[in-house]
Amino acid sequence: MLTPATTSSKDTGAGRPGSSLFPIGQMLPFSLVTILFFMWGVPNNLNDVLIRQFMKSFAITRFEAGLVQSAFYLGYFSLAMPAAILMRRTGYKTGIVTGLILFGTGTFLFWPAAIVNRYGFFLFALFVIASGLAFLETWSNPFIAELGDPDSSERRLNFSQAFNPIGSISGVAIGTVFIFSGVELAPEQVAALKTTHQYAAYLQGETLRVVKPYLALGAVAFALAIIISRVAFPVTRSSSVTAGANKGENHLLHLLRRPFFAFSVVAQFLYVGAQVGTWSYFIQYVQDYVHAPEKTAGYFLTGSLVAFAVGRFGSAWLMRFVSPGRLMGIYSAANVILVTIGVTSPGWLGMWSIFLTSFFMSLMFPTIFAMGLRGLGEDTKLGGSLLVMAIVGGAVLTPLMGLLSIRSIATAYLVPLGCYLFITAYSFAGARALHSPQP
Question: Which domains, from first to last, does the chain contain?
Answer without folding.
Answer: 27-236+250-435 (1.20.1250.20)
